[in-house]
Fold this protein.
Amino acid sequence: MRLYNVHTLKEAQEVMERHFQFETERVHLDDAYGRILAETITADIHVPMFRRSTVDGYAVRTFDVSGASETMPILLDIIGSVDMGKFPEHALKENQSMYVPTGGMLPEGADGMVMVEYTELFLDQIGILKPAIIKEHIIDIGDDVMQGERVLEKHQLLSARHIGVLAAIGQFEVLVFKKLKATVISTGDELITTSSLLKRGEVYDINTHTLKHHLKHFDIEVVQTHVLKDVKPLIKKTIEHALECSDIVLISGGSSVGEKDYTADIIDELSKEEGVLIHGLAIKPGKPTIVGKVQNKLVLGLPGHPVSALIVMDQMMRMYLNAMIEMKPHEVRGTLTMNVHAAPGKETFVMVKVIDQKIYPIQGKSSMITMMSQADGYIRIGENQEGLNKDDQVIVYLLD
Amino acid sequence: MRLYNVHTLKEAQEVMERHFQFETERVHLDDAYGRILAETITADIHVPMFRRSTVDGYAVRTFDVSGASETMPILLDIIGSVDMGKFPEHALKENQSMYVPTGGMLPEGADGMVMVEYTELFLDQIGILKPAIIKEHIIDIGDDVMQGERVLEKHQLLSARHIGVLAAIGQFEVLVFKKLKATVISTGDELITTSSLLKRGEVYDINTHTLKHHLKHFDIEVVQTHVLKDVKPLIKKTIEHALECSDIVLISGGSSVGEKDYTADIIDELSKEEGVLIHGLAIKPGKPTIVGKVQNKLVLGLPGHPVSALIVMDQMMRMYLNAMIEMKPHEVRGTLTMNVHAAPGKETFVMVKVIDQKIYPIQGKSSMITMMSQADGYIRIGENQEGLNKDDQVIVYLLD
């Protein structure tokens, strides 16, 4: 029989950082949404590359129209109009103007724009009804991005907005971290997967469902799921196959130190050099947690209980992915609405609901599965704290 | 030339609600992640369906062991052990006990569990070292979910946690709203899509990138994207084709009332009964917005400017989807860190950054594309407000 070799979460974080690295690849912008930058992006071009008008109107030399008013319009010759996307055919000389649409390029010589609302046509001349201010209604070269400017930092999770900026600077390929693949295995003689009726003593498997879908929250692709009886050779063979096509293997159930708990032994048998790195975490729920390494891949043993499995998996994945991305977007802060007690000597996790920055701990036995559907996330209570008080400010780890 | 027919956002919401409905479909639980429930779910079974132990230990009749202590253990006969997933072979009679693992089913007759830590083996009998409390360490039938109980409400966005609960009650199929499909079209003579070098006057297209990826934020599948020159027959033909395979067509650029703004005319030509429902919104940025309906599908004309297009699209999609789901998860509250001025008579949108519930308005011309990469979302200032003050509590619409 094995014994626990209990670690704190802080130690677990260090183990994760020491043991796991991430590969990178170059992808087209179309495939970059939701990916994490593995390089810092600097602009190769100015944005815009030319002086653009922000209004529909007439490009002018501001000096020419400095005395213009509604009662005394200044008349300018119209020497043409600028087409969108085209280079203006002429430069402005004294007392000349040119029509420029919103987004169009200003001709050489122009240093101001007069909105069409402040102009009036007089035969083939344009009457300017008020003075133009230098650079007003104009975006200058590089106003938005200067060539050589740092635009996005390494480790940035790329959203629609970031991809828009990459498109603006013509960066159509970026270096990102490779997308991770995972296998989820749920073990237990009592687990039933089909929609057939349950016999007494049996329960429907929950963990492949919750773990599989929660991995999507971390943008990890699930390539296989398995629900297995507690049969060691079967579990071992399944893990071996999973390692061929996965970067991460999650196994719920069998992570404790009982008779039918095979995960730790299997991990050690599959990797002589590394194997089990951690067996047992000083957290509640989640003591029976295993962090293992086989062929440079993460093998995670999780408690069988669905709520515990989900919370522990969430914390472990945050730690594992921490070297790739800061997990900030999955957190919010709020104020506790009541006192919460904790298990001394252990980090304690408590499921909570968040409404308007107020945090409501969810009551009920930790064994209850319906807690999951009510909770927006969970809070962490430090190992040296006896609990938290009403009105304390705390961080909530969001569970999507 | 067309004229604007300006509506408020409130009116736009009413138009959306009156004109658009959503279809539903039945899907397997494996495909239910991220979908929106179109039915209320009630449990067909009790969870658990049997009395389960929450510890490894011995099932007892509490009456038998009421006087037990470490110095005076009470000895019980062991009549067997319960296997996980199996129905216990015997019922407990007086002074009998049975081993039950965590999650195992309690035998008939038992009303308490004694943790293995508080027992000692004496030959073929078990010594009980402390009294058992009725129902302690036991989850009773229906403790988690009662048969007939409402488990999830209609309009719930299904996350990993909800799918876990559905699995627990054996609900392997659910009625959800059909996944929506969209086409994104960006129009403008100045737009370049390839990674070739820009000529002066040209810019890279941004809107197909930002709009396409932001639709993923709303779980909408993008089936086509197009970048088109401002040529009316070309744009019309593309919209017609898009309507064959999309529920939503977004067109950026061409939504104003100028010479080359064709979107409104095309929508009216394609649908004699409905066509353009709204042309012009009293918002800033975003006045040139079109809400149209063709073949019961949403055709949305958006401003050409990338920041405006993104904000308007986000607001319009929230309104459109409002009948399917409450958009709460995409909002946070916080405190403004400085005064913000607004355009009177219009709703004003201002891009902001959110750090620890503090809201920092992003400075800079609204024409700047890099604002997008810095912003976490935007705030709304009502049409009758002159602005917002430092320390005001406001809602931020998150842009993923």
Observations:
- The longest strand of chain B covers residues 347-355.
- The mean pLDDT of chain B is 91.
- Chain B touches chain A through 85 residues (CB under 8 Å).
